[in-house]
Design goal:
By secondary structure, this protein is an all-alpha fold. It has ten helices and no strands.
Length: 241
């Protein structure tokens, strides 16, 4: 305030009216305040410094690019990771599409030789089922089941319904286990048993019947009934009366 008062006194001493001198000083003060730099807060200063540092980092990264690349070109994409040369391990049980094809081929050959239905198409459902059977029991067990079907009279249609096995029968979990357990294997034919040994009592009765039959067929008179011996067929008594 002392400086403003001193300026006004100087203007009055120079011959200006005190009111006019005060207006001139006031206008000058307002004009200087408008043009003076604004005071910024500490946060604004930190933000300004952060933006400047960020811009400088971008400039440095642009300058470190390959000089042979044209200006304004897009950055070089990252090179793909090299693939491992180790092949993936096969599923559990050694199953693979090749194993499924081997099973289908073996079944088709067996079906042609046994008169069964040859599979026309291996659908996705059949392939999944065969893969499961291979993983659960192994490829040798599946091939053994196919051979058992070919040797089974029941599976070849020799049953009361005329039913014949097909590829779906092999794919089913329950029937597959039954095949391996020998449920459909042929049973050995029972050998004809020799007639039981004739007892002494049975032999005596047979001889008596044969003698009576011969007597009746050879003589039509009543002499046999009156003069012939009478046989008692009770067990254990072979005496003639």
């Amino acid at each position: 305030m002392s400086e403003i008062r001193a300026l006004i006194e100087q203007l009055v001493a120079a011959g200006l009216d005190p009111v006019e001198a005060a207006e001139i000083v006031t206008r000058a003060a307002l004009h200087g305040a408008a043009n003076a730099p604004k005071h910024r807060s500490a946060g604004a200063i930190r933000q300004e410094r952060y933006r400047r540092n960020k811009a400088s980092q971008v400039t440095e990264s642009d300058g470190s690019d390959d000089p042979s690349s044209p200006e304004g070109s897009s950055p070089t994409p990252p090179s793909p990771k090299p693939q491992s040369s180790i092949p993936p391990s096969p599923p559990k049980g050694g199953s693979s599409p090749t194993a499924v094809d081997q099973v289908v081929t073996a079944f088709s050959e067996m079906a042609r030789q046994s008169g069964l239905s040859v599979p026309w198409a291996v659908t996705a459902s059949r392939r999944r089922s065969l893969l499961l059977r291979i993983e659960e029991h192994g490829l040798p067990a599946v091939l053994d089941a196919i051979e058992r079907i070919g040797r089974s009279r029941f599976c070849r249609g020799e049953n009361d319904r005329g039913w014949r096995a097909d590829l779906d029968f092999l794919c089913q979990p329950k029937s597959f286990v039954s095949i391996l357990e020998g449920k459909y294997d042929d049973r050995p034919l029972q050998q004809s048993q020799a007639p039981p040994r004739e007892s002494e009592h049975a032999r005596h009765q047979r001889e008596c019947r044969e003698a009576i039959q011969r007597k009746l067929n050879g003589n039509g008179h009543d002499e046999f009934a009156s003069t012939g011996p009478a046989f008692d067929l009770e067990p254990g008594d072979f005496r003639a009366h």
